[in-house]
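Annotators were shown the component list below and the corresponding predicted structure, then asked to write short factual statements about the assembly.
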Amino acid sequence: MAVDPPYLYPDYVGTRLRAPSKPQVRLPKGSFDFDAPAFPRKVGELEHDLTRQHAGEPLGERIIVTGRVMDSDGRPVKHAVVELWQANAAGRYLDDGDQHPAPLDPNFSGAGRCLTDQHGRYRFITIKPGAYPWKNHLNAWRPAHIHFSLFGNYFRSRLVTQMYFPGDPLMPHDPILQSVPDDKGRARLVARWDQETTVPEWALGYQWDIVLRGRESTPFEDEHH
Amino acid sequence: MSEPLTPSQTVGPFFGVGLPYEGSEDAIPAERPGAIRVEGQLTDGKGEAVPDALLEVWEPTVGFGRCRTDSEGAFHFVVGRPQKGAASNGVADAPHLNVTVFARGLLRHLVTRMYFPDEPANDRDPVLQLIDAARRQTLIARRTGNVLHFDIRLQGDDETVFFAV
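Structure shown to annotators:
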């Protein structure tokens, strides 16, 4: 069973004119076995804390999102850049294209970066994003989610994905999450509320581990074969 | 033993606050001798502009760049001409850049290569030779003055060649 969604998933209308129609070309083994880019920008000390980027604190439920980044060979992905972006607590992005009539929060931009430590651990402090409507189908609402972007160690490790929150009733209705072909794959995109990570009187904690392609991984399955 | 991978999801339309950064289009400084400006347009299966995409270029001997498309689907980078690629099957690849495409509507990213025009090594490049002659030109930039043009078509008859990575 393929891990990743297919390119064409008609329930997600945006795929219909953007999914390539021709098979991907498979190159000899090793053709893409080179290192990931070294991120050319320094990651600041406070970039992991989305609640401290403005004069005041953002509105919403303060949360900690943390976990381990590993590769498929079981090795921690150390000292690697993790980038994150999200809507505010009202479900609005700081983006000119976002027309949802929900308020912007002057104290929340919704973007962060951090580096994993020597065990591959990352940690962000943010607020829980709100659900928001989109025009995919009548009454379509995205479940609350946080976007993640990771490079990993190798070019083939590159991953852009989304993290969801446990128990969200919108998940079964979301074609973007449902595009992942099996239950286990979808479950890997849902964080776990964690008592140990939760800080008393301060913030709820979520654990979410991420596994990237390692050196020994097989190429993307080509859905045309 | 291999760990189960985390599945890919679309970058969505609202990555602008998170991914591009000032100067991210420049894989090398524009004033460096040999710097080349690359311009292109990203289009969909109807030939319409894709205004909510993010492209990355990466080549170990050149550097990394990142650019979001504008309302016309246009993107640009400043790059250098890479050294010859690693030998595969005993024949060195002609110079090229790896180009990665993320967009709303792409549940997984796409990877293609941009080759340089007027490059004699293109005729011996083992990857270009794998591809039907009719589609090969989708991987080779066109030169206009000092600028290289590299358009990317996601879908359709003139679809860009993408690679299984």
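Statements collected:
1. Chain B has a mean pLDDT of 94.
2. The CA atoms of residues 40 and 127 of chain B lie 22 Å apart.
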